[in-house]
Amino acid sequence: MMQLYWAPRSRSFTALWLMEETGQPYERVLTDITAGAQRAPAYLAINPMGKVPALRDGEATLAEAAAICAYVAERCPGARLAPALGDPLRAKYLYWLFFAPSCIEPAMVQIATKVEMSPVSAGWGDAQRVFDVLDANLTKGPWILGEDFSAADVAIGSALNFSVRLFKMVPSRPSFDAYIARCVARPAFQRAEQLAAG
Ligand SMILES: N[C@@H](CCC(=O)N[C@@H](CS)C(=O)NCC(=O)O)C(=O)O
User: How many A from CA of 51 to the centre of ligand 1?
Assistant: First the structure.
């Protein structure tokens, strides 16, 4: 059984939501980041960055929420959380899965810190561009790939839930509100939110 190392009220929510979407049993291993459990040598052997979430699957270990989404989606094909190899939709699936940590996360940090950077040098351009691109693609819906919900929605939906709904760091837009409402309506999201509350 896969083991998810997690902490309440943290980015572990993304991985919790994904695991709940699979419908498969998994073990949650509470990792108390307020007490420094993430810096214990045994934990650093799983994630040398000393961050949650992380996942163990037999001898395989990994971290980074979006990587966990990709790994588990492939590990649980019955949950249909990723377009199959050879499906043209897989290109956009990977694009949006990487977009969450590569563009949304730094855009959120930029908004929070107000750090100015050249949009040519910054990999995410700037926050305005990131959220305009998301807005344009979420207007179609219902999910980021269109009709089919995927692990990319877990990554994108978690980031928007955090930045727009919970912390209101990013100004809401009609497409964001409607998309977040669709995410929140999913039973797996609701179970994860309860678990993440600790
Ligand atoms: N890039 C990582 C970020 C994970 C992360 O920042 N986790 C925070 C909690 S939200 C953490 O473990 N902090 C503990 C620490 O840095 O000591 C991911 O997406 O999974």
Answer: 4
